[in-house]
Amino acid sequence: MLNSDPMLKKRDDFEDILEERRNTSDLRYALRCYTPALYKGLTPCTVSELKTMVLQSDQLLYVINQVSKETGTATNEIQSEAEAILEEMAHRLQLSTIRFFAFMLSKIFKTLFRSICVNEEGIQRVSRPDRETQNEETWLTLIRSQLQQAIQEHPVVLLPSHRSYMDFLLMSYILYTYDLALPVIAAGMDFMGMKIVGEMLRMSGAFFIRRSFGGDKLYWTVFSEYVKIMLKNGFAPVEFFLEGTRSRTAKSLTPKLGLLNIVMDPFLKGEVFDVSLVPVSISYERILEEALYARELLGVPKPKESTSGLIKARKILSENYGSIHVYFGQPVSARSLAEGRVDRSQFNLTPRHIPRRPSEGIQDFVNDSAFRLVRSQEENMVLKPWVLLAALLLQNQAAGNKLGVLVEDLTEQAVWLRDLSRQFGAFLHWPDHVPPSRVVSSSLSLHRSLVRVSEGTVQLNLEPGFPPPAMTPEEELLSKAVVVLSCASYRNQVLHVFIRAALLASAVQSVAGSRKQEIFNTFSFLWNMFSNEFILRPGAEVQDFEEACYLLVKSAVLQIHQQEVLVTDRGHRTLAFLTSILDPFVQGYQMVCRFLCEEATESLTEKQFVPAVRKFFIKHLLTGGLKYVEVLSSDLQKNALAALLRLGAVQKLRGGADEGTLKVNTVMVNSLEDTLAADSEAARCSALIQRRRPSKQTIGATRRVQSSERSDPIGRLNGRASCCPGAGTKESHQNATAA
Amino acid sequence: MASNSSGDESGRHQTARHRLSVIAGHLQRPSDHNAALLAVECKAQGSKPNVNTSDRGEGKTVPRRRQEIMKWNGWGYSDSKFLFNKKGQAEFTGKRYRLSGMIIPGLKDWMEGTFGANLQHKTQATPVLNTSAVQPPTLNEAFVEELKSTGIPFSHEAEDRVFRAHGHCLHEIFALREGKIGRIPDMVVWPNCHNDVVKIVELACKHNVCLIPYGGGTSVSSALECPPEETRSIVSLDTSQMNRILWIDEKNLTAHVESGIVGQDLERLLNESGYCTGHEPDSMEFSSLGGWVATRASGMKKNIYGNIEDLVVHIKMVTPRGVIEKSCQGPRMSTGPDIHHFILGSEGTLGVVTEVTIKIRPMPEYQKYGSVVFPNFEQGVACLREVARQRCAPASIRLMDNEQFKFGHALKPQVSSIFTSFLDGLKKFYITKFKGFDPNRLCVATLLFEGARERVLQHEKQVYDIAAKFGGLAAGEDNGQRGYMLTFVIAYLRDLGMDYYVIGESFETSVPWDRVLDICRNVKARIVRECKDKGVQFPPLSTCRVTQTYDAGACVYFYFAFNYRGLSDPVHVYEQVEHAAREEILANGGSLSHHHGVGKLRKEWMRETVSNVGIGMLKSVKDYVDPNNIFGNRNLL
């Protein structure tokens, strides 16, 4: 995972697919001959045959009978109900519609974006370095692209990240461009509201699923059979969003498991040999929905639909949204994910068409796989220089610096951060042949709606452009928050690179001594606390710790000995950066705890939670008791609640009049608050120290914090580490230290 | 089913002769000159100087010194093998089989095309056994002394011992070809009857000697391998000389037979009286009745005659605790768990089966091969499923996948009067009428009908009608017949492959109907993937057939072979791939074995197969019957 080779390989060869569009006819492009390679086991069938197969599938017939017995409804009535569900759901993929979109989107994309860059390797070129020794002619009769090969070999599931409505149109557009099989896409029902658009999307391969259908067995069966049959027959690659919905914060969301369960099922039950899961990372230099998301997170109503709104919407077309990078990851074989993890013979004793709840083992497996896939989406996400600038500007703003930062200083910091993030394995797209100052200035100009550059200083564009027309302090705060949250959504893109190290850094800062075991305990606490906020794979706590240690040792921030963790003098700057990047979250969570202790009434329900917390936060932000405006994000607040629910500090009552009421375990929440507060405090101190210390200076030897006791916590830790695949044993600690 | 001339003595002889020709159909040379030819062959066999056999050796195939007629490091008769002649054409030597003496022009291209094999790259097997490589026997002197006094023949010659130290797993034959000999039995004894066996077992118990029963030596489960950790003297108990039919009971249609008789002798001798057992496993030339019982064997015509467990009426087995048998020959009993089922499949761990009463049937009046071509394997399986649902399966029905169809095609001899060229006809067929068939997807079912002529024809029609519903086209008798021939020569072909860096083997499973397609696809794909991952340089042959049908499922048979050039340890790679394939089978709801048995090769999966309690049950039987592990081949458990 930390091997740098693939990173280097990854960096090269993005192809801008808009370049050709700017030079040749869009119409000819839309009408060109399209002959994708198909799955070798394909049973060709039409859209309506597909429906018949679903309606006649053993699974569905079984469930129809079951429902009929339970409800006393005649089977043919339920059958027609199933037909109706399918009718509502099914796509009507048509090449002509795709061609229409290809034409339209070419026009739109060219106006909106500078470039759409696709990694050629993932999609086009063959990459099998391990096979070089083999007889190419016999094993590989054709030189095929990675994705194309995957499509031919096994049913393919495309798993793009979800940041924008654009995502799935963009996916189909790219696949069409590269002459690859067009996917069918699971889309939320909300699109269906738009009559014509909904139908257009249907004809471009979207099928629509209800957002929630909890106990509706019939619906679930029709839906899952529909997806499975398309997958098994190789009708088309199945595309869906692991994150379930667009991430408003640009952080990856905790994966939803429903569809992944469905597409894994045919493999687990042996109905196909394997399924290829292809994580796709789509990164936008500027997200179209930028301000929209921020408003949504703040609970600020959308600007009213009006003529002016329309004009504004049109303005979108005249703006520059930079470039898009699309990275098709290495296809992941479901089979290799399951290898040694799942006992597939568990399906041997019941007919496979009888629906059963997945066993705990299967659920864990699917969950774990989902996290791995989201992680690889994260890792393959191209980061623009701007995300680093956003991180720095936000830190600067939070530090209370009202005057902004000098462009030169910002450039210096950005270069430092660029190098650091590269050391951490970030997939950073920083044009090295351009002088850093140019890189910085062009990033700033692209995002001029968020930053203000004047007299050589840069700061977030927090003051309203024109004289404030009698705004209340609260309104003023919220309008500031829109900018901060927009900015944070860029900073968030880089979080996954630093999160493990940041958790460790915070742990190192807040632990009084240098004992590794204590640091691990604190790390573990934070890791647990924030596992709803960031993508932290369940059970990978020790592995993540090891990884963080490795990274911080590699970047000469820490020295790790058998039982001690020491901070090098040079390391303080990095450590301070890392702690401050986590700090808004720590403080946000801490304040949520405080809110629950101080203000939560007996009758507080889940629904009331966010507005109440928001009110509480606004109060404290206005009185200066809270530093970070970004804690106003409802995403953070919801995640904090989810974490507290998971940890058992808050309980959600079920049933009766109290449905959804939150019951707070005050003692526990209190102690969580204290722990977080201590952590936040330590972070602030370190940041303070850091700011006083000139950064270029490196003085003296390693500060050695003596450990007071010398028990052997490492042994225990290693014991735990060794049960995690890939996690190091004692040697790897030493290696890490040596490195 | 009784023939129209039954009861009439001469008529019966006629039937017998006919029957012989039928057997010859898939075993022996073309039966153009029927009786005369067979008589010559029988005489030829009988006239072979069987120096060591007793007076009872008349007409029996297997001498005590197997090396006189069989290969020590390959399959079957010494005089029969495939080779590439000077012109580079494949040829099958000898006179025993219908392929014998024929040129098989397609085989070379098929081998080169399928495996990337090359006639220039040959690996020579060690031609003769180097007896100095054989460890000297560890003899239990007291045992040997007492054995001598019984007069039962025995030997501790290296050749005899090596012969009985192996079955026909790939690793066993590969090692022999390399001249590598591991732990082998220290001596071989040849009991002549049940009482001899009783004496031997008593002596073995008395002197704590390890006994390993040996029947036909056709095991493919490492069952005959001597446990390397065994420190006692190991005695191979070769039943091959216990090969008499003791009586035939025409009223009840049973025969009482000594367990060492091999399949071809049993059928031939019964045929002479107008009967047959109908039990025809692919190994029937060499495998023995006792071996069938001990491994729960299955015959290709089980649809009419049943598998071994359906055929046996009574079993006598000598164990360290004494002799186990039932007191009567009632056709079915409700007397607690059937003790026969402790014996069936015990794989030589509990004792030696000495005598078996087996059901017999009058020889079928008429026999007819057939074949059906399907556009694809899926359709073929659907057809077999329907045939099974209607319970109208012919004596044998097998569905070969496309690769195996091509394999069979490659074995078409050059000059043949009786092989009316099916394929040429079929090709015309496609081109003119049925272009829809993709030659790279089609598959063939081979059929064998047996019984009264009228009924056979009626049955045939029924089956072809069902096949037609699944897009199947009748494709002639020859094609069917050649399909069955393939299973008899496959082991000879493996020897040829090994001469040219190709190793392979077959394995089997049984699986519910709804999983047949999935298991075939997944296991074949797994083999290909594993080969790739293990550094095999050429894509392997990975093919299967559905070889038996049942009410609730089918038996699937896989062939797997690859070119091992460039691999440092081909056998290890082979074993890893086979292991993975077995894992895949189990993951897809297949059984550990349909008829090959467990032996030592598959015993690591026994516990998950039969559950902890199941293992405990089997163990406790072993502990009671053989507390000192006299029958110490360590199979199964």
TrEMBL record, chain A:
GO CC entries: mitochondrial membrane; peroxisomal membrane
Q: What are the subcellular locations of this protein?
A: Membrane
Q: Answer whether the UniProt record assigns the keyword Cytoplasm to this protein.
A: no
Domain Phospholipid/glycerol acyltransferase: residue ranges:
156-285
Q: In which pathway does it act?
A: Phospholipid metabolism
Under SMART domains, the record lists: PlsC
Q: Which Pfam families match?
A: Acyltransferase, GPAT_C
The processes (GO biological process) annotated in the record are: ether lipid biosynthetic process; fatty acid metabolic process; phospholipid biosynthetic process; triglyceride biosynthetic process
Region called Disordered, residue ranges: 696-739
Keywords, comma-separated and alphabetical: Acyltransferase, Membrane, Transferase
Molecular function per GO:
glycerol-3-phosphate O-acyltransferase activity; glycerone-phosphate O-acyltransferase activity
What protein family does this chain belong to? Belongs to the GPAT/DAPAT family.
Stated name of the protein: Phospholipid/glycerol acyltransferase domain-containing protein
Q: Which organism is it from?
A: Gambusia affinis (Western mosquitofish)
Automatic annotation (TrEMBL), chain B:
Domain FAD-binding PCMH-type positions:
181-363
Q: Which reaction does it catalyse?
A: a long chain fatty alcohol + a 1-acylglycerone 3-phosphate = a 1-O-alkylglycerone 3-phosphate + a long-chain fatty acid + H(+); hexadecan-1-ol + 1-hexadecanoylglycerone 3-phosphate = 1-O-hexadecylglycerone 3-phosphate + hexadecanoate + H(+); 1-hexadecanoylglycerone 3-phosphate + a long-chain fatty acid = a 1-acylglycerone 3-phosphate + hexadecanoate
In chain numbering, the residues marked as site (Important for enzyme activity) are R398
Q: Where does substrate bind?
A: R494
Cofactor(s) in the UniProt record: FAD
Its pathway, per UniProt, is:
Glycerolipid metabolism; ether lipid biosynthesis; Lipid metabolism
SUPFAM superfamilies per the UniProt record, alphabetical? FAD-binding/transporter-associated domain-like, FAD-linked oxidases, C-terminal domain
Q: Which InterPro entries match?
A: Alkyl-DHAP_Synthase, FAD-bd_oxidored_4_C, FAD-bd_PCMH, FAD-bd_PCMH-like_sf, FAD-bd_PCMH_sub1, FAD-bd_PCMH_sub2, FAD-linked_Oxase-like_C, Oxid_FAD_bind_N
Instruction: List the GO cellular component terms.
Output: peroxisomal membrane
Task: Could you list this entry's UniProt keywords, alphabetically sorted.
Answer: Acetylation, FAD, Flavoprotein, Lipid biosynthesis, Lipid metabolism, Membrane, Peroxisome, Phosphoprotein, Transferase, Transit peptide
- Keyword Magnesium recorded: no
Extract the PANTHER family matched here. Answer: ALKYLDIHYDROXYACETONEPHOSPHATE SYNTHASE, PEROXISOMAL
Q: How does it assemble?
A: Homodimer.
> What is the designated name of this protein?
Alkylglycerone-phosphate synthase
Organism name: Gambusia affinis (Western mosquitofish)
